[in-house]
Write a structure and sequence with these properties.
The chain contains 20 helices and no strands. It is an all-alpha fold. The radius of gyration is 23 Å and the shape is globular. The longest helix has 38 residues.
Length: 464
């Protein structure tokens, strides 16, 4: 009977192979896409965390229509498998979430509050459109929090995060070169954006990616893996300089200060890798000084940001607690163009219908102090989990994982700095980082309870 079953399986594989070959001969592109989709589904069903890791890089290329298609396809597959997985492990999942109950209550509270703000939004369609985007970001958080439960899977997700940043950087550099812009007198439209779609968004992701590379270099033991990680540093550094992002410069400064604090007894962990990044960025600025001029010039009102911030502050001060309704700033800003006095860029308010370009101010304006406070609690909870995990790993003698936990803190600090110049509170890749804080702490608790410490080991230790 076993021989017959194996024979049937082999026959099925042969038939599928023949059908796939015939389909490829007729429609090569569609066939490759179908096979890739089938492989992704099979991998996700076999090991959910692997599917999540394959999905994460698509977050970085969503500015391209093909990247957005990959992102949404991954959402469908991972969401369905995640729901089934949670239902099958509901007791274990609830027990795991219970460890972080006081802090995690802020997540559903934040989601509920976003829905509540629809009640007083003057532009309900805009509010609903923004609402579902925030819900997807929160779903990403929950998927990573409950689906990534092993140290090896956590490292795989971080590697995928860096890979996504590297792909975004490569696409930006390739598009810059193919546009015939090398050596040209660049304008604002020539800043690197690539598949990320926006230079400032790209910069925020690349800076966090570089920081995570430093942490992965502490834990990845494979020589090939370490070489690949090192090679990403000049790529990410040059692409970050090419974005010409002033918010990126602030993020680098803030991340550097936080790194010196959390690694105050290990300065070499910060300084040596930072020199490689600074060298690649300095080389780019030397070749294309116009990017450096843009980064260091602040007399243009932040390309309209100062006017947007004044308008947002005016709206927020009128609705300080509850806000004006999620997603409603773009529909209200034009009415303020004549009420806030002289402006540097009237188009930014009256015509473009832009977001605030400040995550915190946008949340305060649209969701009030309540929404902003809940968001900050979520971010702060991630940092708290990472720092507590680092202390636990130190007690266990696992210095490498302790360093990785602190590196995630620095990456979140870079996000916090970039968020002062961009409205990116619902960026999926950063909600992945927010979820990895409690994941790091959960792994640390499991190792404390079940394993004797063995210093500086990652690969040979039990994952849970």
């Amino acid at each position: 009977m076993g021989v017959m079953r194996r024979g049937g399986a082999y026959a099925g594989i042969v038939v599928l192979g023949v059908l796939a070959g015939a389909a490829f001969a007729c429609q090569p592109l569609w066939t490759v896409g179908a096979l890739a989709a089938a492989s992704f589904v099979a991998i996700t069903l076999h090991r959910f965390a692997w599917g999540v890791a394959l999905w994460v890089p698509s977050f970085f290329v969503a500015g391209d229509p093909r990247g957005k298609a990959l992102l949404m396809a991954g959402f469908v597959v991972c969401s369905l498998v995640w729901v089934a997985d949670v239902l099958a492990r509901r007791r274990a999942v609830l027990a795991g979430l219970g460890r972080f109950r006081p802090w995690l209550l802020a997540v559903p509270a934040f989601a509920v509050w976003l829905v509540v703000t629809l009640a007083w939004a003057q532009d309900p369609p805009a509010a609903i459109d923004e609402e579902w985007r925030w819900m997807l970001a929160i779903e990403v958080f929950m998927i990573v929090l409950t689906g990534v439960t092993r140290a090896a899977d956590m490292l795989l997700v971080l590697v995928a995060w860096v890979a996504g940043a590297a792909v975004a950087a490569a696409s930006a550099l390739l598009s810059f070169q193919s546009g015939g812009q090398l050596g040209a007198s660049n304008t604002l439209d020539d800043r690197l954006a690539g598949a990320a779609g926006d230079p400032n968004y790209l910069a925020s992701r690349l800076i966090a990616g570089m920081i995570l590379v430093f942490g992965l270099l502490r834990v990845v033991r494979s020589r090939t893996g370490r070489v690949l990680l090192v090679l990403t540093l000049p790529l990410l550094g040059a692409a970050t300089a090419g974005t010409g992002s002033r918010g990126g410069l602030l993020a680098v400064v803030l991340a550097g200060v936080v790194a010196l604090v959390v690694f105050r007894h290990k300065a070499r962990v910060v300084l040596i890798p930072a020199l490689a990044v600074l060298a690649s960025g300095a080389l780019w600025f030397a070749l294309f000084p116009q990017f450096w001029l843009r980064v260091t010039e602040f007399d243009d009102g932040g390309s309209g940001r100062s006017d947007l911030w004044r308008a947002a502050t005016r709206l927020a001060s009128g609705h300080p607690a509850a806000g004006i309704g999620l997603g409603n700033f773009p529909s209200r800003e034009a009415a303020l163009a004549l009420d806030i006095g002289p402006v540097l860029d009237a188009r930014a308010l009256a015509e473009d219908r832009r977001v605030v370009h400040n995550t915190y101010l946008q949340l305060w304006t649209e969701t009030g102090a309540i929404g902003l406070a809940l968001f900050l609690i979520i971010v702060g909870g991630c940092v708290w989990c990472c720092l507590r995990a680092a202390r636990t790993y130190d007690r266990l003698g696992q210095a490498r994982l302790a360093d990785l936990s602190r590196v995630v803190v620095v990456a979140v600090a870079a996000f916090a700095g970039s968020a002062m110049f961009i409205s990116m509170g619902r960026a999926y890749e950063f909600w992945v980082l927010f979820a990895l804080g409690p994941v790091l702490l959960a792994v640390a608790h499991a190792r404390t309870a079940t394993a004797a410490p063995r210093p500086n080991e990652v690969a040979r230790e039990p994952a849970r």
